[in-house]
Specification:
Chain lengths: ~525, ~220
């Protein structure tokens, strides 16, 4: 069949792909978005933990579409880890939506340096926040962090948030509201948050979560210039001998091989899968750095127990699921305080796994019942997640697995995931600080969840941006040094990860990249 | 932010890194060959168990009657009733497990669960003269604990991983929406004081989730 022709093809519909599709369609371009996952909409989102979080709703099956992931020196194991989310809207559909900007100093680190200045990114941060709807309270933030207020004020907070505020005052630490990609008010035709508390791991049936699905792609569709094809797995990006991208090959939803042609191709499948796609396509790797410098979010997490009768948990307060407090310590990093996720099975698993070493069996029997009772009935809990900069190193990369193929016959991604020791140290320090703050808040007991700090859904680095083709994959505009009109607009291009979840930066950078695409015409 | 990958991912993670042979056993390289692995010095492998006369009692679609009884007993030890709180038996965890084992996503761990059931019964027979379900709770705890620590003297089976699989399925069966066959009458949710989640709308039993990723 004759190939479809478009002005641009965007592969992947998540944070980067959605933003790129929005910008290009608004600039008058005819855009094809190919998404390998299904197109869920609000009617498809419900809160059944087993179906949504523990079966293959958002990630493929590790049986027929695995990543082969090796932690540290261990041998690779077949897993779904490394997939962010395969659906229209990608990871932004089930994210919790912690939306931090990178500060100027985060664009430079020991591991790398962005080849752009912060002021080139700043207007796009403004645009993302305004277009998709980000809620927050700039008054409490460290001075100089932002010039503009948030488009809307912060979400309502559970009274237990004041425990963190008071601890901050006691310790002389600034505590501010976590900016969220969740609407605190009706906005741009979408409804405000209903405070159900099922943000993380679930799609938002209200449309209040500012995912690419509810915002960027909806706006792009309204231009009439968007063609969105779900259940279409892109298997190759194609280029001509002159080094210009020509389009893609993909399997349509019936599994039939199709071609689509375009002047520009924007790849945005997440750092793991974007690297894989380009490696499979044998493109864009003149530097030899494609797949290298892989960075996963460096996250430590833990908990603090408070007395059951603490007045900060009055009856009825369970209707307010958010604490939304953030601390950004002087030395770097970000500590987020929150209430436990409502998922019962998840919490029970965490309780059973707490405290033992990796080899010990999970708690069972009377001990398990005791832990369930303590957590669910005898105490209240505040949890924390802390993030610090991931550092690129030789032990962390994406390659094509030499043996294992997915159900489409493509070599799967082989991922080596390991936290750099300096990141680990910084993470441990933040972890301690978080527990110190909660202890000052009056916690009965505090604890850390441990683990290797690798947080797979935040991934970047595998197609790093730089000025020189010899030591980078993409130029400062996000274009491949080797293949004209081929861009990568997810986190792959990041030379640094920054100190906080970086989904907002993926979106802003994608808009910046799209602006260059449009300028070039 | 929170994301739990699908169950096979979680369970495969829980399976750890068994040897290639162990992995094949668990992935159903053949129940016959799996149960053919022998106890050190034992006369007969798990399959050719002379004492496996058909037992009365419920069976499932995937679990036979003995396996059902063993899994029901084992999961009740993992999450026992007590002090007015329902345990795995009352919650119907074994029914949940049987239904889950019939789904394509969990087909790879059917072997692990069946082997665990048979191994527990076999070790119960050898040490206490009766199948797991017939023993008093204290002795059941010894048997289940041995599996949990990988201490049953039976070569070639990744016992710790098999225990983890049972443990994970127990928690799921206790706390998942009742439509999946466990958490009967919401006893699990009541035990933890969990109010029904706003907008449960789980898929009706027997239907596939709204969209699936091939398999």
């Amino acid at each position: 069949m004759a190939a479809d022709r478009f002005d641009a093809i965007v592969v992947g519909s998540g944070a980067g792909g959605g933003a790129a599709a929005y910008a290009l369609t608004r600039a008058g371009w005819k855009v094809l978005v190919l998404e390998k996952g299904p197109h869920y909409d609000e009617a498809d989102f419900f809160h059944d933990e087993l179906t949504v979080c523990r079966r293959n709703t958002f990630v493929p099956s590790a049986l027929d579409e695995p990543n082969m992931v090796a932690h540290g020196d261990e041998s690779p194991a077949r897993t779904a880890d490394g997939w962010i989310s395969c659906c229209v809207g990608g990871g932004t559909v089930h994210m919790s939506g912690f939306f931090f900007r990178m500060r100027p100093d985060e664009l430079r680190g020991p591991g790398g340096e962005w080849p752009i200045r912060h002021h080139e990114l700043a207007p796009f941060y403004d645009e993302v926040e305004r277009v998709i709807g980000v809620s927050g309270e700039s008054e409490g933030e460290p001075p100089g962090w932002r010039r503009r207020p948030y488009p809307m004020g912060p979400l309502l907070s559970h009274p237990a948030g004041t425990l963190v505020d008071e601890a901050g005052r006691k310790l002389g630490i600034r505590v501010f509201r976590t900016p969220r990609a969740i609407l605190s008010a009706d906005y741009a035709g979408r409804k405000a948050c209903a405070y159900c508390g099922f943000c993380g791991s679930y799609g938002c049936e209200v449309g209040a979560k500012s995912s690419s699905l509810s915002s960027f792609l909806a706006i792009a569709a309204a231009t009439g210039r968007l063609t969105l094809r779900a259940r279409c797995m892109t298997t190759e990006v194609t280029a001509d001998r002159a080094g210009r991208v020509t389009g893609v090959v993909y399997l349509d939803e019936t599994g039939v091989r199709q071609r689509a042609r375009a002047h520009v191709v924007v790849v945005a499948c997440g750092a793991v899968q974007s690297a894989r796609l380009l490696l499979v396509s044998r493109l864009a790797n003149g530097s030899g750095l494609l797949g290298k410098n892989l960075m996963f979010g460096t996250m430590a997490a833990g908990w603090a127990r408070f007395p059951r009768d603490d007045p900060r948990w009055p009856a009825g307060a369970e209707k307010l699921p958010f604490i939304d407090r953030t601390v950004a310590p002087e030395g770097g990093g970000t500590i987020l305080f929150m209430l436990p996720h409502p998922n019962p099975i998840l919490q029970a698993e965490r309780l059973a796994d707490a405290g033992g070493d990796a080899d010990a069996p999970p708690a069972w029997g009377v001990e398990l019942q005791r832990r369930l009772l303590e957590f669910f009935h005898e105490t209240h809990t505040i949890e924390y997640e802390c993030f610090c900069a991931a550092l690129p190193h030789d032990g962390s990369d994406v390659t094509l697995d030499p043996d294992v193929k997915d159900r489409f016959g493509l070599p799967v991604a082989r991922v080596r995931a390991a936290t750099h020791p300096d990141s680990r140290r910084a993470s441990d320090a933040l972890d301690s600080k978080a527990r110190q703050i909660l202890t000052a808040a009056g916690a009965l007991r505090v604890g850390t969840r441990g683990g290797d700090r690798v947080y797979f859904p935040l991934q970047c680095g595998t197609a790093r941006m730089g000025r020189k083709a010899s030591d980078s994959v993409l130029d400062p505009t996000g274009q491949s040094h080797d293949v004209r009109n081929l861009y990568v607009a997810d986190g792959s291009g990041f030379p640094t990860s920054g100190d906080a979840p970086f989904t907002l930066t993926i979106m802003a950078n994608a808009l910046r990249i799209a602006s260059h695409v449009v300028k070039r015409g | 932010m929170d994301l739990t990958a699908g169950p096979v991912a979680a369970l495969l993670r829980n399976l750890g890194r068994p040897s290639r042979r162990q992995f094949q056993l668990l992935l159903g390289a053949g129940l016959a060959s799996a149960v053919g692995c022998k106890r050190d010095g034992a006369a007969a492998p798990l399959a050719a168990d002379a004492s496996r006369t058909p037992a009365p009692g419920p069976r499932g679609d995937v679990l036979d009657a003995e396996e059902w009884a063993a899994i029901e007993a084992a999961t009740e030890r993992i999450l026992p009733s007590g002090a007015g709180v329902a345990g795995a038996r009352e919650a119907g965890v074994v029914r949940f497990i049987d239904r889950q084992l019939g789904t394509p996503a969990l087909a790879p761990i059917v072997n692990a669960v069946k082997l665990a059931a048979r191994l527990l019964d076999r070790w119960a027979q050898e040490t206490h003269g009766g199948r797991l379900a017939r023993l008093p709770p204290g002795q059941q705890d010894e048997i289940v604990g041995a599996l949990a620590r990988g201490k049953i003297p039976w070569k070639g089976l990744p016992q710790k991983q098999m225990f983890r699989v049972l443990h994970t399925l127990t928690l799921e069966g206790y706390l998942a929406d009742p439509v999946h066959g466990g958490n009967a009458g919401m006893v699990g949710w009541k035990a933890i004081g969990f109010r029904e989640p706003h907008l449960r709308q789980p898929a009706p039993p027997g239907t596939a989730p709204v969209h699936r990723h091939g398999g």
